[in-house]
Design brief:
With about 425 residues, the protein is of the alpha/beta class. It is built from 14 helices and 12 strands. Bound molecules: glutamic acid.
Length: about 425
């Protein structure tokens, strides 16, 4: 599951945008505004490490477009983060928020580091210094970070605490994905997967796939991947394989998604998972015949080299950008329903929005309320996408972009950014 350095991820965004923009005959001014990120801040973050030496980490925050509201998006800590990647991820957030109809623009952040090799103290120092560096451009009404790859509720707590100290004001609305004691929402930790479960259920209805006993393969067993396994299993599906960067496990009779998650939480990786499983490589995992494939790792995982081996009826993209445009074309031609990232994983940012709303009015909802509201948002985004796809004869991804772009265009025109 390594990254292909030759691959230009922002070009994926541009190609997806182009396809939808052509289909909409989109105004060139809107097109130009959506093509470029509004702002990217590059920072250097000095941290005194446990050995006494100073290490300087590189970090980025990109705000892609804020026509619909303050920008929103996660921050990842990863050893291979690049500015261009953060910009692509920020653009996806713009389209994702517009598609599900929440009042945010898109942003994303990243710090080049390997949290697996850092102590908790080092991570805390890095988190706090990063927020100091971003402070001028973030805030509950400007830009609201959240968890992403290798960041969690603890990192969000440090972000929030540091910002609150700088401002002298308790500011839970600065970030989402916090623990509940600090204003986190019920269901935020599993929201990406819960949303994915709702749209996968709708997708299965669309193609007439019976979920009872339907086979599921999960690439990447972090937060989104593991909860996806657990929720899809609740719908009657059978998780037959999963992996992470340490390796993969396969059992055609089905794996216990919850036990797998607990094992990973305790051991930090899936390797060594006991029981009757066969160990498989990432390549083998992606080539397994299954009903539902959930790529929940990094970008560019389903590409022209391996797409020929993919054998799934539905691909539900839990990760951002897991499928390259070439692979996407092959899959759609072959009749696979690809539920694109901006729809499939939008549950995360949707419950982030709920969390932020609760923070701003200081009144908290119960779990049922969060889940019900999420289901409504996800099902209606699925239906809007489906209607567009059927009406215009386009793929689900292009349809999702078209719905999003229509909203962005309307807002740009209303705000006087463009004249239509
Ligand atoms: N990092 C998540 C995403 O890519 C969540 C962003 C958020 O909650 O703001 O959608």
């Amino acid at each position: 599951m390594s990254k292909n350095k030759e691959f230009k991820i922002y070009e994926v965004v541009l190609s997806q945008l182009e396809e939808a923009a052509n289909e909409l005959n989109l105004d060139p001014q809107v097109r130009a505004l959506l093509k470029e990120p509004m702002r990217t801040l590059i920072v250097s973050i000095p941290v005194r490490m446990d050995d006494g030496g100073i290490r300087v980490f590189k970090g980025f925050r990109c705000q892609h477009n804020d026509v619909l509201g303050p920008t929103k998006g996660g921050i990842r800590f990863h050893p291979q983060v690049e500015m261009e990647e953060v910009e692509a991820l920020a653009a996806w957030m713009t389209f994702k928020c517009a598609l599900v109809g929440i009042p945010y623009g898109g942003a994303k952040g990243g710090v080049l580091c390997n949290p697996k090799e850092m102590s908790k103290t080092e991570l805390e120092k890095l988190s706090r210094r990063f927020i100091q560096a971003l402070e001028p451009i973030i805030g509950p009404e400007k830009d609201i970070p959240a968890p992403d790859v290798y960041t969690d509720a603890q990192v969000m707590s440090w972000f929030m605490d540091e910002f609150s100290k700088i401002k002298g004001v308790y500011s839970p609305g600065l970030v989402t994905g916090k623990p509940r004691i600090l204003g986190g929402s019920y269901g935020r930790d599993s929201a990406t997967a819960r949303g994915l479960m709702y749209v996968t259920r709708e997708g299965a209805k669309k193609i007439g796939l019976d979920l009872e006993g339907a086979t599921v393969v999960i690439q990447g067993y972090g937060n989104a991947g593991s909860f996806s396994g657990i929720f899809l299993r609740e719908l009657g599906c059978k998780v037959i394989a999963a992996n992470d960067s340490s390796g993969g496990v396969y059992n055609p009779d089905g794996l216990n998604a919850e036990k797998l998650r607990d094992f990973k939480n305790e051991n930090g990786e899936l390797q060594g998972y006991p029981g009757s499983v066969k160990n498989i490589s990432n390549k083998e995992l992606l080539a397994l015949e299954c009903d539902i494939l959930v790529p929940a790792a990094l970008e560019n995982q389903i590409n022209k080299e391996n797409v020929g081996n993919i054998n799934a009826k539905i691909i539900a993209e839990a990760a951002n950008g897991p499928t390259t445009p070439e692979a996407d074309r092959v899959l759609n031609k072959g009749g696979t329903l690809v539920i694109p990232d901006i729809l499939a994983n939008a549950g995360g940012v949707t419950v982030s929005y709920f969390e932020w709303v609760q923070n701003l009015y200081n009144y908290y909802w119960d779990r049922e309320e969060v889940d019900q509201k999420l289901e409504k948002v996800m099902v209606s985004a699925f239906n809007r996408t489906n209607e567009m796809a059927e009406e215009r004869g386009v793929t689900f991804r292009t349809a999702a972009y078209m719905v999003a772009i229509n909203r962005l265009t309307e807002a740009m025109a209303a705000r006087g950014w463009v004249e239509l």
